[in-house]
């Protein structure tokens, strides 16, 4: 059993993790960007450390800062929540190198399934049914060409996205043009990966975890 767990996330997911840790009698350690100083996950944690000013890439995705706080606070494990570093195999491997337990899948599992476009490739290799879609699209022109093949409406998706972040419904070329750069920026800022791909949109679907 761990005595202390650092939560490398913010907001509602961090609060849920804090509540579970309290129930288990484990000390919770929150991190926060300066803009989130008054957030609930900061107030509810047993300890809270500031990651400084800046966007997610400069704070919640800054591995140097996170491991420095983990060492200073005596954290024995890191819970990444969802989004951010939760699907970053390199981060999970670094946790092991730092003798900190990563509370999540193994790096090998994340490399197979963590990125959506590689999960699609694995499914296709095993003859599983898939929605019409693409590999990574590197340019807007390539995205428009692929969209013509798949057909609208479609979803422009961040391959590293989580929690619904980095997904944009596009109904025509105009909406795809307007969304392409912004989704890539959002993905880079929130997941340190700006890869995007396209997939047929299903208007009446059920999400099964």
Description:
- This protein is an alpha/beta fold and 209 residues long.
- The chain contains 8 helices and 8 strands; from the N terminus they run βαβαβαβαβαααββαβ.
- The strands form 2 sheets. A 5-stranded parallel sheet has the order 3-2-1-4-5, sandwiched between helices. Strands 7-6-8 form a 3-stranded antiparallel sheet, with helices on one face.
- α1 (11-24) links the parallel β1 and β2.
- α7 (140-150) packs across α8.
- The protein starts with a strand and ends in a 9-residue tail after the last strand.
- The model has no long low-confidence stretch (mean pLDDT 94).
Keywords:
alpha/beta; five-stranded parallel sheet; 8 helices; 41% helix; elongated
Compute the number of helices: 8
What general outline do the C-alpha atoms trace? Answer: elongated
* β-sheet strand percentage: 15-25%
Radius of gyration over C-alpha positions, nearest whole angstrom: 19 Å
Task: Please describe the biggest sheet, giving its number of strands, its sense, and whether it closes into a barrel.
Answer: 5 strands, parallel
How many runs of DSSP E, i.e. beta strands? Answer: 8
Distance between the first and last residues' Cα: 27 Å
Question: Average pLDDT across residues?
Answer: 94
Short description:
The protein is of the alpha/beta class.
């Amino acid at each position: 059993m761990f005595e202390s767990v650092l939560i490398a996330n913010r907001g509602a997911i961090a609060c849920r993790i804090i509540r579970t840790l309290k129930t288990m009698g484990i000390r919770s350690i929150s991190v926060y960007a300066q803009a989130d100083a008054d957030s609930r996950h900061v107030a509810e944690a047993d300890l809270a450390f500031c990651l400084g000013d800046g966007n997610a890439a400069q704070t919640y995705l800054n591995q140097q800062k996170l491991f420095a706080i983990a060492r200073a606070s005596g954290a024995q494990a890191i819970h990444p929540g969802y989004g951010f570093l939760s699907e970053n195999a390199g981060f999970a491997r670094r946790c092991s190198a730092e003798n900190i337990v990563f509370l999540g899948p193994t790096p090998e599992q994340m490399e197979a399934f963590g990125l959506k476009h590689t999960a699609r490739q694995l499914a296709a290799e095993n003859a599983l049914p898939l929605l019409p879609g693409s590999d990574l699209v590197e340019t807007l022109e390539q995205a428009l060409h692929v969209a013509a093949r798949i057909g609208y409406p479609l979803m422009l998706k961040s391959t590293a996205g989580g929690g619904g972040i980095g997904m944009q419904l596009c109904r025509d070329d105009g909406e795809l043009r307007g969304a392409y750069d912004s989704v890539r920026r959002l993905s880079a800022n929130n997941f340190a990966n700006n890869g995007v791909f396209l997939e047929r949109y299903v208007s009446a679907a059920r999400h099964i975890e």
